Amino acid sequence: MSDISFDILKHFGVISEEKGGWKKEVNLVSWNGRNPKIDIRDWAPGHEKMGKGITLTPEEAAKLTELITTALVKPEE
Q1: Which residue, among 41, 3, 1, 2, has the nearest Cα to 22 in the 3D structure?
Q2: For 25-72, how does the pLDDT look when each residue is reduced to its tens digit (9 = 90+)?
Q3: Which long-range contacts (CB under 8 A, 24 or more apart) does 48-54 make?
Q4: Predicted confidence (pLDDT) at residue 75 exceeds the cutoff of 80
Q5: Above 80 in pLDDT, residue 18?
Q6: pLDDT score at 37
Q7: Cα 13–64–67 angle (5° rounding)?
Q8: Architecture of domain 6-73 in CATH?
Q9: 67: which residues sit within 8 A by CB, 6+ positions away?
Q10: DSSP string of 2-66, one letter each residue
Q11: How far apart are CA 45 and CA 15, in angstroms?
Q12: Which residues are 38's β-sheet partners?
């Protein structure tokens, strides 16, 4: 398995935190030197380990924001 490099360019915030110190964070991350994307995933303290997550382009993040806003304003019955 090849090494994965990452650079957290901007930290937007923490969604939640587990007892072991792992945090679900929203960051702007460049993976393997590529263009940065909005990244949502679990991180160990110090960012030495990471869990599975999702990366989004700005357009995808905007669409996700729209969909979540709609879901919260008009939840389905």
Answers
A1: 41
A2: 999 999 999 999 999 999 999 999 999 999 999 999 999 999 999 998
A3: 50/6, 51/22
A4: no
A5: yes
A6: 97
A7: 120
A8: Roll (2.30)
A9: none
A10: ----EEEEEEEEEEEE-TTS-EEEEEEEEETT---EEEEEEE-GGGSSEEEEEEE-HHHHHHHHH
A11: 15
A12: 28, 56
Question: How many angstroms separate the CA atoms of 77 and 75, rounded?
Answer: 6
Global confidence as pTM: 0.86
- Residue 77, pLDDT score: 58
Instruction: Tokens for 2, please give them.
Output: 């090849």
- What are the boundaries of each domain within the chain? 6-73
DSSP single-letter state for residue 71: H
